[in-house]
Specification:
single chain, 188 residues, alpha+beta, four-stranded antiparallel β-sheet, 1 helix, 20% strand, rod-shaped
Length: 188
């Protein structure tokens, strides 16, 4: 038989209500901080995709200008780039959707992919003009210069400013553009 000491308290296993409350508070603060990171992560992912797509668009623009200058020569113009349409662009959409326009005005370029004809994502987009994969708002300023008395058109300076997405409005789009610069030397 066990004797009980009336002046002594028995020890019990477990946590007090205060300890449980403090533990829940620490967990709640940790979860709140973790959930606060998700929107910033999504913004960073979107910015990375935008930068990649804009870089691909700039490469497309400058490559078509290089090809036009190489084929036509010193008298090339941005209109000459129309015949160098990428195989990556859908063949089902009107070629006018892919025309580059210069002069420094704000233009929108819609990217309708073809996926190289692999039938994995190409669609008859003629009836679905609103379903583009990417849109870029851009200004393209092309300047011809004279160089060592060879005349105009020897060196062309192209300045491309690109904003992600479709911009509808007047004036320059808001936000900082991605700026690309290239010199194009036509073959003689």
């Amino acid at each position: 038989m066990t004797k009980r000491n009336p002046g002594r308290r028995e020890l019990r296993a477990g946590y007090s209500l205060v300890e449980v409350t403090l533990a829940l508070l620490v967990v709640a603060i940790g979860l709140t901080a973790t959930f606060a990171l998700f929107p910033e992560g999504l913004r960073a992912a979107r910015a990375a995709v935008d930068d990649t797509e804009i870089g691909m668009f700039a490469e497309y623009v400058f490559t078509t200008m290089d090809l036009a200058a190489g084929k036509v020569g010193a008298d090339w113009d941005v209109i000459d780039t129309d015949e160098f349409r990428s195989l990556m662009l859908s063949r089902h959409v009107s070629a006018s959707n892919f025309e580059l326009r210069d002069g420094g005005g704000v233009e929108v370029f819609y990217w309708y992919p073809d996926y190289y004809g692999l039938q994995t994502g190409d669609y008859a987009a003629s009836g679905l003009q609103g379903f583009w994969t990417s849109a870029f708002t851009y200004t393209l300023d092309i300047r011809l210069s004279e160089w060592k008395n060879y005349g105009k058109g020897v060196t062309t300076y192209a300045l491309l400013k690109v904003w992600p997405g479709k911009y509808e409005g007047t004036g320059t789009p808001k936000g900082d553009p991605r700026i690309f610069y290239r010199e194009i030397l036509p073959l003689r």
